[in-house]
Amino acid sequence: MASSGEAAAPDLISADIDPKDFRPAASRTLTRGALVITIVVVIAIVVPFIAIQVKRTEVVGEFERRLQILADGRGDVIAAWLDGMTRPADRVVGSELFRLFATEMDLSGGDISDLATRDQPVPPDAAVPSGMGVPLAAQLPFMQQVLTDFTKSADFLAAYVVGRNGIAYVTSAGADPISPAQQAIAAEVFETGVLRYGPARAAATGLVLDVHAPIFRAQSEVAAERPVGVLLLTAPVSAALGQILTPPPLSQPGERPRLVQLDDGDFVAVTPGEVPPLRPIAGLELDGPDHSIPFGRRTSIDGGQQVYSVGVAASGPAWWIVQEIEAAAVDETLAGFVAAAIAVSVLVVLAVVAAFGAFWWRLSNEHSSALADQFRRLAARIEAQKQLLNSINNTMADYIGLKALDGTYQYVNPAFARALGRDVDKIIGLDDSAIFGAGTAQRLRLSDQRAVASGAAVTVNEEIYLGKKLHYFQISKVPYQGDHGKTSGIVSVTRDVTELVEQQRMKEKAIQQMVTALVRAIELRDPYLGGHSRRVAGFATAVAQRLDASAEDIATVEIAANLSQIGKLAISREILNKPGRLSEGEIAEMQEHLDHAAAILREIDFGLPVLETVYQMHERLDGKGYPAGLSGDQIRLTARILGACDVFCARVEPRSYRAGIAAGEALDILEQNTDRYDPAVVAALREAVGSVAGEKLIASVAVD
Questions:
Q1: Angstrom distance (rounded) from CA 548 to CA 66
Q2: What is the residue extent of each domain of the chain?
Q3: What is the pLDDT of residue 34?
Q4: Residue range 239-275, pLDDT digits in tens
Q5: How does 83-115 read in b/e, with b if 16+ C-beta sit within 10 Å?
Q6: 10-residue block means of pLDDT along the chain (704 residues)?
Q7: How far apart are CA 671 and CA 651, in angstroms?
Q8: Do domains 40-349 and 393-494 have the same CATH topology?
Q9: Which residue in 692, 672, 691, 693 sits closest to 682, CA to CA?
Q10: CB 3.0 to 4.6 Å from 260: which of 202, 239, 309, 320, for a disulfide?
Q11: Fold of the CATH domain 393-494
């Protein structure tokens, strides 16, 4: 208390500010805060619910597109496979022999007994083939043997030539009797004149498929005539269908393809490799466009599980490719988003409550101001770094792109967009198929898969058309790791090397022109070498290809073969054209042609080991060759090929002192000297000599 005589200090709270004055303001603040928190809670519930529904629609839509693409792709694969499988049938249905035979059978009404005295007809304006004019009944064994040979060569199980009465009057050896179902399909082909497939069916060898191809009258216009016979082929399909229906390595969990068949009005699951391979299905409906199975959630074809699936009709048989993915896999994809949305909602509510509390208890917070200032400075630094990165990306000449695992572009730099002639925002969301076309997209997809599978950088060279101009690109791809260390995309850096490739090709063309000129000079020098270099090059290239040599080795032997005789430009004409055998001194001088060749070729940059190949072509496996006495693997493969082909051509070609020998005799000599010539090279040379191209090269010896 103050002593008497001192003025009492005023009570600032009671005198200047009444605490009661705060109560209305505090009440209003609490009311407003509660209202704000209530609104935030409602928003935190409604917004995630809507977002989850939108995300669900988006995810299901993405799976629908993926399944549709996969189903369409497998449908195209089946169509291509069926086309390739049935193409050999053209050899029979297009054969005049079978067409004439089927025509006569059709005229006879299928009565084989009537054929004993009936001669096979001959078209009035056609040449008479061997065997024409013989009674058809006598030709039945021959026709059966021809059909049997065709069945074996084309990998079919059985073949039949069916008449209009449903009787198979020519069959391959060992073929089972034709069934009523096969006869019914053959009758439809007689009516329509169109190739038909039967349903897949189980046999002792596995699943088989019947192909019914029409045979038209001899020398007729197919479009204007009805068939006179039907070629029925039974093909094994278990292995092919099993391979087609095998999920690719990068399939998502729970994703699988199924093959469905319509047989006598009932749906049947075709499962090659399982027992039984054909199983009835209930509840499957065709109500989509073009008799397809629309996308939707339904019971799996295997039964039990709920799946999302879509089906497309395959070309040919009554087949549908059904692509399924387990509904649980789709729900699992959404689970993370749902958890994140709920967590964000809870955090938002907590943040609002915390912010309101902070506002209530401390209207002015120096720490918050300092923190806000730090965030501003941090945001400024981040913006500066972003501008730096953007300036780098915007000025780079290489094309940079980021693709998601589904193949759609998430980012491209301006150089990429300029090369495509599109705006950046119009490229985002597209895939390689939409940008470059299906063929190029397939090649790029393979390198994407290699990068993802290896987890390392992959570099490929691609030829791609941009703006109707062919470009050569060198593309480096690396997996992009997301926040959790998992691969979530692919980063590609593309460099346009068109100018370098064209310069390299110009260089190769110049080298080829130079080689041609040098070969002409060699042949003018020695008339007995006319065409020798060309023949050696032809055989050496063919041998290298048969040995699965690299592209570099194949190019090396071709150039080296053409230049193999260039050193003889420095050898005197007297020795080159001497009619008798050479003396030891002349042989030694002749062997110096390799040193002369080295002196000529040493300064030429072929970019290939041409000089080494030419210099070693006279080395032998036993070490008795020249000039260095190399042996075994010390001799390059290209030199071993060139040496054997050079000796072979020299043997079959005439010389001033001897005549040429037969190709077979020359090959026998090489095969008898396994200690000098590589047996694998000689074996490949024999194959090359027996080919059509080899026979033409041998025939050119007489011309030259």
A1: 39
A2: 40-349, 393-494, 502-703
A3: 80
A4: 888 888 888 877 788 888 988 888 877 888 888 878 8
A5: eebbebbeebbebebbbbbbbbbbebebeeeeb
A6: 39 42 58 81 86 85 86 87 89 86 79 52 43 61 90 92 90 90 91 91 89 86 76 91 83 85 84 85 70 83 83 84 85 81 82 72 57 73 72 75 86 83 84 82 84 82 78 84 77 80 62 65 62 88 94 92 82 72 80 84 85 92 92 94 93 80 92 94 94 88 70
A7: 14
A8: yes
A9: 672
A10: 320
A11: Beta-Lactamase (3.30.450)
d(Cα 206, Cα 272) in Å, to the nearest integer? 8
Q: What's this model's pTM, rounded to 2 decimal places?
A: 0.44
DSSP secondary structure, 2-17, as one string: PPTTSPPPP-HHHHT-
Name the strand (E) or helix (H) holding 330: helix 327-361
DSSP 8-state secondary structure symbol assigned to residue 491: E
The CATH code of domain 40-349 reads 3.30.450.20
What's the pLDDT at 132?
A: 46
CA 445 to chain centre: 9
Which of 494, 488, 462 minimizes the C-alpha distance to 476?
494
Beta-bridge partners for 399: 494
Tokens of 63: 């799976």
Tell me the Ramachandran region of residue 146: left when phi exceeds 0, alpha when psi lies from -120 to 50, beta otherwise: alpha
As beta bridge partners, residue 119 has: 135
Residues 6+ apart with CB under 8 A from 197: 82, 209, 210, 211, 212, 316, 317
CB atoms within 10 A of CB 277: 20
Contact 562, 534 (CB under 8 A): yes
Residue type, position 568, single letter: K
Residue 119: what residue type? D
